[in-house]
Amino acid sequence: MNEQQTQAAQPQETTSAAEDHDGHEGQSGHEHHAGHDDHATQFRDRFWLTLALSVPVVVWAPMIQDWFGYTAPDVPGAPLIAPVLGSVIFFFGGWPFLTGAAEEIRARQPGMMLLIGMAITVAYLASMATTLGLFDAEVWWELALLIAVMLLGHWVEMRAVGRAQGALAALAEMMPDEAERIGADGGTETVRVSELQVGDVVLVRPGGRVPADGQVIDGQADIDESMITGESSPVARREGDRVVAGTVVAESSLRIEVDAIGDDTALAGIQQLVEDAQRSTSRTQKLADRAAALLFYIAVVAAAITAVVWVLAGQPAFALDRSVTVLIIACPHALGLAIPLVTSISTSKAARSGILVTDRLALEATRSIDTVLFDKTGTLTLGEHGVSDAAAAPGTELAQVLRLAGAVEADSEHPLARAIHDHAGDQVGELPTAEDFTSMSGRGVQADVDGARVAVGGPALLREHGLELPTALEERAKGWREHGAAVLAVIRDDEVIGAFALADQVRDASRAAVHELHTAGVTVAMITGDAQQVADAIAAELGIDEVYAEVLPEDKADQVSALQEQGRKVAMVGDGVNDAPALARADVGIAIGAGTDVAIESAGLVLASDDPRGVVAIRQLSQATYRKMIQNLWWAAGYNIVALPLAAGVLAPIGFILPIAVGAILMSTSTVVVALNAQLLRRFEVSGASTG
Predict the structure, then answer these.
(1) pLDDT for 605-646, tens place per residue?
(2) At residue 324, does pLDDT exceed 90?
């Protein structure tokens, strides 16, 4: 339904059943969902009462008695059953359609409500005129069933759209109501989440939900972040790491310093992104709106032609019957549901999988993307250095180098030190204890390990000690440097015993993402400010088709434009502030890993996780969504190619007449089919992302 239609259906609460929520911008997703449930309940109640009142109208209808060969009981006032109950049905059951028609007339936007309003009004006036002996075209039972079927269609629609809005309600329900705040004396007090302030410290126990965004200041635990990232595997969080409101802490307690509350939390931002996307209008929706308006004029003209033809044929009563049937069967009822329901389901499904759609146009455009341009650092790579290789000098075992270097780096806070320590622990297990640790600014670190003085550092450390890498190590180090790796030497008692190569780590998922995009026939390119040899090495490792290296941040958008000038449809994938212009310039901008605020604002799609396979998932979802849209559009409007001529009575000469009630059933069946077809999108599974 369009906005005016639903305004009419529920004049006390202006809400679009399909996608427009202009009157509810301040509502939470839960309130929004509840609003759709309320509307569904109201249509349900109107439907059941109308259906109950329709039963006696149908039972005592002369045509029905003739069809089924029975005689209805002769009860007092039997002739008044149809006009009395029919009038109640018209004004009670038909009220949403009558007020909707009035709204469309005032807005000068003819559509489905106006057609239904016209049809039931004509049917009611003709039947009442017949009851009063002024006309001969009684269609009370058709009118009753028409309104009942229309109410059923609206009930189904409201329920479907309400379920599509459920993602927002689910997000809202993930927030705990209370939190344990730690006071100045170290004790805890239970407070409402709304009372928390930035700077408060909260205790989250095992199995509890994080009440606000913040930083871990004490403790270590695995956290289930699937509601944010879509990834099912828990993520380890320790002191210094950020955590997000709504995520679940497992196994052990955490103390968290709050740094964002209320609307500033990531969860609130995700809710807003989903709601904005569901409110936005897509190209296909605009097509559906135009089709509905066009169908109104086609229906009116077809009804007029039908009336003229049958009146000229000397059958004025049949002309009225056929014209009403044309108006009924041509109602673009399903068109109002065809696109909004699909997009609502797709954006909700995407949100549950860690894909946030901020612009429906971007989701639609992704299906036709033929080139994906990835930023390197932080997108295809982790954006942090790790040990890519290690080597020992001749005469020294690599395990010994790892043990000594890992022990020395244990007390250092430098990211490279942590990388060496973690790598050594993974490779050799338990590490010895270092003593007399010293950090030498700009040179490295040193400590006593197993009775020897061990130092780890770069070229400045070697120069200070007057040392060089042994020839064998230097050959290895030369290759490392050519691939952009930093080289750190390990010195034991003034002798170089080994070296480490530390480089930006390629994400494990990047290889799969590139492979799956290639399988889909998409060209994969990479853009980076790094040196050409570094970029070439990453590209060779991942199988990337095109490499643009040594590109200044301000020139990334120009490279996107250059690809577009070649006739390509480009998706830009990045995570940083310097990616924002390129994200905005691309046909589709995708921010990965939630990125920065600037990157998100410039992107039409946001991957809450840092898994680049999400790009594949988006493309698959886009294609599935588009298929459902087109299927629904054809079903919603295409059946009129056959139905309109039948409604007009082209087969009447051979004895086939399409009754008004059958026309109503056909039209509403179209609505139900569209709703069920859209629901099938829920069963679609993307294979690209680890969506959990």
Answers:
(1) 888 777 888 888 889 888 998 888 888 878 777 777 777 888
(2) no
**448 forms bridges with which residues in the sheet?**
435, 453
Distance from C-alpha of 13 to C-alpha of 392, rounded to nearest angstrom = 74
Q: How far apart are CA 100 and CA 94, in angstroms?
A: 10
Q: Which residues make Cβ contacts (< 8 Å) with residue 472, sequence separation at least 6?
A: 391, 393, 394
**Cα distances (angstroms) measured from residue 612 to each of 226, 516, 598:** 16, 11, 19
| Secondary element (H or E) of residue 255 | strand 254-260
Q: Is 108 exposed, middle or buried (0-12, 13-18, 19+ CB in 10 A)?
A: exposed
Distance CA 665, CA 8 (A): 23
Distances (CA, A) of 288 to 1, 98, 281, 601: 10, 22, 11, 28
- Buried-exposed string 281-306: b where 16+ CB fall within 10 A, e elsewhere: bbebbebbbebbbebbebbbebbeeb
Residue 447: strand pairing partners:
454
- For residues 60 and 77, what is the distance between their CA atoms, to the nearest angstrom? 11
CA distance between the termini of the chain: 33
Q: Which of 21-25, 42-46, 510-514 bottoms out in mean pLDDT, i.e. has the lowest?
A: 21-25
How much is the pLDDT for 230?
43
Look at the block and give the residue holding tokens 């430098």: 414
**What whole-number distance in Å separates Cα of residue 516 and Cα of residue 527?**
19
Q: How far apart are CA 202 and CA 497, in angstroms?
A: 47
Q: What is the DSSP string of 447-482?
A: EEETTEEEEEE-HHHHHHHT----HHHHHHHHHHHH
The identity of residue 29, as a single letter, is G
> What is the arithmetic mean of pLDDT over 501-529?
89
Instruction: Please give the full DSSP string across 346-385, using - where no structure is assigned.
Output: HHHHHHHTTEEES-HHHHHHHTT--EEEEEIIIIIEEEEE
For the segment 422-448, the average pLDDT, to the nearest whole number, is 86
Q: What percent of the chain has pLDDT over 90?
A: 17
User: pLDDT by residue (tens digit) across 54-106?
Assistant: 999 989 988 788 878 898 888 888 889 999 999 999 999 999 889 988 988 89
Single pTM value for the model: 0.59
Summarised one tens digit per residue, pLDDT across range 646-674 is 888 888 888 888 776 676 567 667 777 88
Which has the closest alpha carbon to 525: 500, 548, 498, 495? 548
Q: Could you tell me the maximum CA-CA distance found in the chain, to the nearest angstrom?
A: 118
Q: Are 295 and 332 in contact (CB under 8 A)?
A: yes
What is the identity of the amino acid at 599?
A
Catalytic residue ranges: 375
- Per DSSP, the residues of 29-76 read HHHHHHHHHHHHHHHHHHHHHHHHHHHHHHHT-HHHHHHHT------T
Cβ(372)–Cβ(525) below 8 Å: yes
Partnered with residue 371 across adjacent β-strands are 523, 570
Nearest to 127 by CA among 144, 152, 106: 144
C-alpha 668/C-alpha 689 separation (Å) is 38
186 vs 314: CA distance, rounded Å = 94
Cβ neighbours of residue 308 closer than 8 Å, sequence gap 6 or more: 319
Distance (Å, rounded) from C-alpha 303 to C-alpha 295? 12
Model pLDDT, residue 20:
34
- DSSP-assigned beta bridge partners for residue 196: none
